[in-house]
Amino acid sequence: MFVVAGELTIPILPCRLLDDVLPFYEALGFQVTHRQARPNPYAVVRREDIQLHFCEPDGFDPERSYASAIVVVPDADALYRSFVDALRAAYGTLPRSGIPRILRPREKLGTVAGFSVVDPGGNWLRIYRFGDSEDARASVKGLALVLRSAARQGDARGDDATALKMLDAGLARHVGAPAIERLRALVYRAELAARMGDRERLVATLAEIRALDLDDHARVIAAADLATAAEIERDLG
Asked: In sequence order, what are the residues at sequence separation of 6 or more whose Cβ sits closer than 8 angstroms to the Cβ of residue 63?
């Protein structure tokens, strides 16, 4: 059997206009390494070993895009922080809803942890860490399982309404869940409410988060979730 080492697969992603997506990727630290207008509009961006190609299909609508690419990196958390800083600098706030947007790192169903970026072309970049696999299923139950399943709907499929419905039902059903599990579920509900522009639900959820009785140990474990809640509240104004 003929085997070649070092293969490379590069996605070609659609966009309405190259001028929509290229400034976005430049803000994220990518360089435009190629651009042409003829015989068809086409461009290439690159950041270290991440390379993406873009085209302009006639009549393309980003809101109806199904395009997606998986990007596997050594340190997904570090890349997320870099992207967050870049987007805040470019937009003045973190785009959490609509197009474009960024979704924070979260463990998906299974053991894969990562984050997603939706670019101005409606393309989903699903960014994971080397070595992660969905083959080994972590044993979770109760509210933690509800949260993971809701994240599958909201973060993987982009169905925020279904994710919020699942989460609300889970929070009502598992009223006796440990405070740290309720915190994580409530922080995600706050994220979903912010994405959907539901200010009333967002304000109420942030109040529930503040009212949780967390000891010092729980606050250390849930530091990232608490930081996200504080960030959402700052953005609320």
From this structure: 99, 122
